Amino acid sequence: MQAPPQRGALIVVEGLDRAGKSSQCESLYQKLQQSGRAVKYLRFPDRTTAIGKMIDGYLRCQSHMDDHAIHLLFSANRWEVAHSLEEDIARGTTVIVDRYSYSGAVYSAAKMNPALSLEWAWTPEIGLPQPDLCLFLSISPEAAAQRGGFGVERYENAALQSRVRELFQTIFRLQQSGNIRTIDAGRSFEEVAQEVEISVLDCIAGLDAIGPLRRFQSITH
Ligand code: FDM
Ligand code: MG
Q1: In the chain, domain spans
Q2: Helix axes 158-174, 101-109, angle to 10 degrees
């Protein structure tokens, strides 16, 4: 009998705006593909689905929504692909994800709505596939500003971003099993890309030790 194929890895790339997440994800995707691996690239929010279109309208300030309601839509936008994501992983496909539950929790908690704590924000993420590796692309506010500053979407302002920066550190501390690796994204594209690739290949090589795909748990554990 043939041994089942090794499962794919779930790789998440997180960071603030202008940290270079999307270009690094694309470069990583191409490198893994060229090396002959089965690989997919997802990003959240996925603005193409029905839920994603509601999120898109909200982010472009074309609609208003209660903070909890939009929060749950962001989470639902992950849940709607969770099943196919697990199937891909089981089939041996490595999945690269540009923003995930960490962004979900910290951007909502950064609004400082007293009725929307970080713990509340994390709750709908419980049970989603947990990344085997989360790369946090870290960039200073000054370097981010040099890369073109803020765009016009909701959340693209200095006060919110600085709270987001702190909350990322808080959530990473609370999610100790998260295998989070901080990467200095203030360096050249190539230097960052190299560290990203090495970290991902390391993770893939160590998948047997990790075992089956895990799921997110409560952050109070
Ligand atoms: N964002 C992203 C959230 O508020 N919650 C989430 O769950 C996710 C995935 O959406 F400001 C925020 C983060 C960012 C905005 O993301 C749009 P992109 O990566 O800039 O498209
Ligand atoms: Mg953006």
Answers
A1: 10-210
A2: 130
CATH level 2 (architecture), domain 10-210? 3-Layer(aba) Sandwich (3.40)
- Give the distance (Å) from ligand 1 centre to CA of residue 50: 16
- How many A from CA of 72 to the centre of ligand 2? 19
Residue 118: its H or E element: helix 118-122
pTM of the model: 0.96
Question: For ligand 1, which residues put their CB under 6 angstroms from it?
Answer: 17, 44-45, 59, 74, 99, 103-104, 107-108, 155
Tens-digit pLDDT profile for residues 85-143: 999 999 999 999 999 999 999 999 999 999 999 999 999 999 999 999 999 999 988 88
Cα separations in angstroms, 174 against 40, 119, 161: 28, 10, 20
> Quick check: 195 and 50 in contact, CB under 8 A?
no
Phi, psi dihedrals of residue 207, rounded to the nearest 5°:
-60, -35
> Could you tell me the CA-to-CA distances from 143 to 26, 132, 189, 193 in Å, in that order?
21, 29, 13, 17
What is the C-alpha separation between 24 and 137, in angstroms, rounded? 9
